[in-house]
Amino acid sequence: MFKAEPIIKRELIGILRRKRTAVALVMLAVLLCAAVLFKWPAHGRVAYSGGQARAVFEVFAVFMLAAILCLTPIFPASAIVEEKRQGTLALLLNTPLTPLDVLVGKLTGVLGLTVLALLLSLPAAAACYSMGGIGLMSQLAPLYAILLLAALQYSALGLYVSTRAASTDAALRITFGAIFVLVILVLFPEMFLRGLLTGPSAAVIAWLRDVSPVPAVMQVLAKHLATRMAAPGASHRHAVEHYAILALLSSAALLGLTLSRLNPALVDRPRDSGKVTNERSTSVQAYRRIMFLWFFDPQRRSGLIGDWTNPVMIKEFRGSRFGRSHWIARLIGGCLVISLLLMLAAARGSAQWGPHMLGAAMVALQVALIILLTPTLAGGLISQERQQGGWQLLRMTPLPAWRIVTGKLLSVARTLALLLVATVPAYAMLVLIQPGQLGRVGRVLACLVLTALLALLTSAACSSLFRRTATATTASFVVLIALCGGTLLVWLGRHGTFSHAAVKDALLINPLAATLHAIAAPGFQQYRLLPGAWWAMGGGCVLAFAILCGQTWRLSRPR
Predict the structure, then answer these.
(1) Residue 466 and residue 379: Cα distance in Å, rounded?
(2) CA–CA separation, 501 and 528 (whole Å)
(3) Do 72 and 114 meet the contact criterion of CB atoms below 8 Å apart?
(4) What's the pLDDT score for residue 338?
């Protein structure tokens, strides 16, 4: 441990010296105080039942969980890939320090920021405890233990992804995408299949649900909330224990994989130069035409840009990984197959496995794909050009600024549009199963289009605000995940923590909740979110577009 002390100091001090770290910690403290004051008794009087104290504590716990999920992965995901990019990882691995010392130093350094954030929350926690009704060892201590386990788990995930990724923004994209799956998406199988499975199947989805820290936090907050989240036949009393076991096992596995990759071979791997299909033999070209249908061949030489085509759009297509034709074909094919399988299950299943439930699963899959894919494509539209010096070259071209931005937006919009079109056959099958669902399907498609537009403009606006692509991508993920996942934490406390009106107000800004309400998903039918959610998403699109236009105009001015 003492060998790793220089790395710990280097990592922790380097993180604390950054201005955005200080801003994030100050904002955390301010928002935490505001969240506690939001539910604080108006006249300073507390009921003997402890209901007010529990309400304040529940707001505090939900806010702290959201803060840990958003702040923790940023620095681990960039810890090792930054060393590779700067060329210092090879020097570090050739010092007398062992790979274990390097891993311990990196992990301890990035966890120090989480510990500091938890220390800043102690005054608010003390305020909740001073009201009474909160157990120190039964609620407060388990909550902090869950938060520490979540920080350890997602730090280990970020470090492992950092050893695999080729750039900082790619590491951040993969890490935030994995966290969105591990925290939010694993809750949907139990939510939609509740009461339909018994025996080992119910136990499996209960353990899958407990992969997320949300059920464990809900159990700590209130027993009746955890009861409502548990599947029939599964014990709700063991959510904390299950999460502790899963978090420790996954953290150990991820740290072991990271340790196995910390060797000189990590920075000394030769790359294949590749070979263009046009330069290969006739037999190989014929084979690849059959395998890739020719127009999807990733190694085929691209054609010339048309006279009336936006060159910036073509540049983005050919420069982005998911902009290439073969990747778009894979995404569209995957979405089409999964959506059709879900609708086939709805058509052949029993009355319990009806179109509403599997339609909700398909909607959740689509929104999750939009939220995870859009920052990947649009997070570096402007910031990557500024970081690599390409923005100055674009300003020197005859293209006006509006055409540059339009080409960049269209490059991402085309991919998102193709993904949405790929699921239209599944919705058509849903209408064939139940002809009365035509209006509902139309509302769902309208919600999906607005969600994609909001995600695109939000990511582009973040890209124009920051110079570095990694920072812009992180900001895009944080904003979108907070909109779609953060407000769902309020929805999870709908039975005792928050009132019906408070939950409805929180869900109005959630594109995922609006889409689930449009498909009549269980748990969302009782909230009248439309057309209010459409107006909220439209307002968000207008705000993001205004920020994008203002920043682009500022960056395009002569200097």
Answers:
(1) 10
(2) 10
(3) yes
(4) 64
CA atoms of 175 and 110, how far apart (whole Å): 15
Q: Residues 6 or more apart from 119 whose CB is under 8 A from it?
A: none
The H or E element containing residue 401 is helix 401-422
Mind spelling out the 3-state secondary structure of 466-503?
CCCHHHHHHHHHHHHHHHHHHHHHHHHCCCCCCCHHHH
Residue 329 burial by CB count (10 A; 0-12/13-18/19+): exposed, middle or buried?
middle
pLDDT, tens digit (0-9, with 9 covering 90-100), for 379-404: 778 887 887 777 788 777 777 777 88
Unique residue bearing structure tokens 């280097």:
10
Given a cut of 70, is residue 287 above it in pLDDT?
no
In three-state secondary structure terms, 540 is helix
The single-letter DSSP state of residue 307 is T
CB 385 within 8 A of CB 312: no
Record the tokens describing residue 439, joined without a space: 């209006």
Q: Are 71 and 24 in contact (CB under 8 A)?
A: yes
**Unique residue bearing structure tokens 């939900």:** 62
CA 176 to CA 109: how far, in whole Å? 20
Q: Which of 159, 191, 199, 151 is nearest to 175 (CA)?
A: 159
Q: Which amino acid is at 86?
A: Q
* Residue that wins the pLDDT comparison between 161 and 326: 161
Q: DSSP 3-state assignment of 266?
A: helix
Q: What is the pLDDT of residues 164-213, one digit of tens each?
A: 887 777 787 788 878 878 887 787 777 666 666 666 777 777 788 888 88
Please give the residue that has the higher pLDDT: either 318 or 149: 149
* Exposed / middle / buried, residue 270 (Cβ in 10 Å: 0-12, 13-18, 19+): exposed
Q: Please, is 332 exposed, middle or buried when counting C-beta atoms within 10 Å of its C-beta (0-12, 13-18, 19+)?
A: middle
- Does residue 266 contact residue 89 with C-beta atoms inside 8 Å? yes
Find the radius of gyration of the CA atoms of the chain: 25
